[in-house]
Amino acid sequence: MRYWRALPALLAFATGCAVPLDDEPTADEPPSTLEAAVTWEPCSTTAQLLWDIHPGAPGSDPASLVRGEDGLFFTADDGVHGRGLWVSSGTGGVGTSLVKDLRPGLDSAEPNELTVAGGKVFFTADDGVHGRELWVSDGTPAGTSLVKDIHPSPMDLGPSGLVELNGRVYFAADDGVHGRELWVSDGTAAGTFLVEDLYPGADVFDPASPGSSSPRRMVRTPDALYFVANVGDEVRLWRSVGVPGARPVFEAPEDNVVFSMTPVGSEWVFFLVDNDEGEASLWVTRGTLGSTRELRFFHGAYPHDLTALNGKLYFSAGRARGGLEGEPAGEELWVSDGTVRGTRLLKDIRAGAGDSRPGSLKVMNRRLYFAADDGKSGRELWVSDGTSGGTRLFKDLVLGAVGSSPMELAPIQDTLFFSAETPELGREAWVSNGTPGGTRPLTEVVPGPTGSAPRGFIRSGWDVFFTAEDGAHGREPWALPFRPEDHCRQ
Fold first, then answer.
1. How much of the chain, in percent, has pLDDT values that exceed 70?
2. Element housing 172 (H / E)
3. Which of 38, 29, 6 is nearest to 485 (CA)?
4. Which of 107, 151, 301, 394 has a CA between 20 and 30 Å from the CA of residue 329?
5. Rounded to an integer, what distance in angstroms lies between the CA atom of residue 154 and that of residue 165?
6. Are 185 and 171 in contact (CB under 8 A)?
7. Residues 142, 165, 118, CA angle at the centre, nearest 5°?
8. How far apart are the first and last CA of the chain?
9. What's the CA gap between 141 and 123, in Å, rounded?
10. d(Cα 216, Cα 171) in Å, to the nearest integer?
11. 207 pLDDT band (50/70/90 cuts)?
């Protein structure tokens, strides 16, 4: 048993708990009784450089950080093997290493779309022989392999849009026969197959080519997939339970753009539609055409940061100057309960025509944290309980109108990790236990006002990982020991 896989079991034994603690609830789900009973905390304020993967100033630029059963998986470029698949056990265990050289030589396999399903990590990569195809890894060289050569052509775009449902990964692929359609894989060649040909026959624009529905922008609810796909000259939003029989829940001419699908609760999915005007409407569906309805059209920039909290949708939106009478001017915080009347401005944080520009909306302990600028304190960290009166400035890290511009908000086991910029520290990592007094910076990665620009906070095992630049090593992986209370010295 690998050391970092054994950690949850050791913790369960030490605390008397019978199940691992590695799963976290989604933003719209309550924590389990077990998770609610255990408090996690940073074991120190000083993060550690895990490994200088690419020595020197360039750095390895770690990306696509995901938590697997066997540690943290990510991609990085060590300057020798090109961008490859890496795994790390963090501050304990066997360390950080290249999983396998997928494309020996100077060229890179460029693994991407890392997705955990069924205890394995799926990804796409180009080994220089098969073109871009689906791969799977358990974190060992022997357990890392090509799943299936779906389209024996090095020119094919390859699988895309990977998403997990019921322990399997779903994605779009083109086998050269059916066009680009919905596929599924359990990590074996025999278990990798076409789910459904949504657009059978020839392409209406190219009769010599098979029709391609081109599934994309896939998201999942607890029991279904939602994705956008075309049939002829129509674009549709589809619902699928992973077997043949997907059904459309929204249909429009092909020049419409359907995007930002966001599940709320177990049944509702909100989404945006741009009808080729450069502006968007907010829609909602319960998984059928009959339940799908338009809620509101938004002038100006697209609504963004759609986030579920307590059965409602919260997001940032506004209108262009000179819009409809009575509409708030500027980009502010909005809420929707899935009804037209209940889709409304929650709070005009920067009163008048200005923009508070709420961004980086994240949920922790049933409260919404985000960055906004009220025109007085600068861009700072805000919090909301979902009501106008309960939406307030959380902490003013830099007094005055400049603000600390919080970014990279990441709630992890009741601790909020984020980056903020102050004149003394530059942009560095901060943590908060959900109280202003418990909000503090970690030890600087780069002493002084330069800052290390940390990003990508994610927990795996008993560490919180992120990437940062310390001025000497370029951007590399860092980790902070983060464990249940009373276990920091184990």
1. 88
2. strand 168-174
3. 38
4. 394
5. 28
6. yes
7. 25
8. 18
9. 15
10. 8
11. low
The total number of residues shown for the chain amounts to: 490
Distance CA 398, CA 415 (A): 21
In the numeric block, which tokens belong to residue 257?
A: 């753009």
Interatomic CA distance for residues 389 and 392, integer angstroms? 8
Of 128, 124, 134, whose CA–CA distance to 191 is shortest?
134
Report which of 416, 441, 414, 443 is spatially closest to residue 430, judged by C-alpha positions.
441
CA dist., res. 282 & res. 305, Å (int):
13
Q: Which of 52-56, 85-89, 280-284, 329-333 has the lowest mean pLDDT?
A: 329-333
pLDDT in tens, 287-307: 999 999 999 999 888 999 999
Say which residue the tokens 């502006």 belong to.
279
Question: pTM for this structure?
Answer: 0.90
Instruction: Quickly tell me which residue has 């092909």 as its tokens.
Output: 254
What burial letters (b/e) apply to 302-335, b meaning 16+ CB within 10 Å?
Answer: bbbbbbbbbebbbbbbbbeeeeeeeebbbbbbbb
The amino acid at residue 157 is L
Higher pLDDT, 59 or 4: 59
pLDDT tens digits, residue range 58-101? 899 999 999 988 789 999 999 999 999 999 999 987 889 999 99
Structure tokens at 202: 């020839």
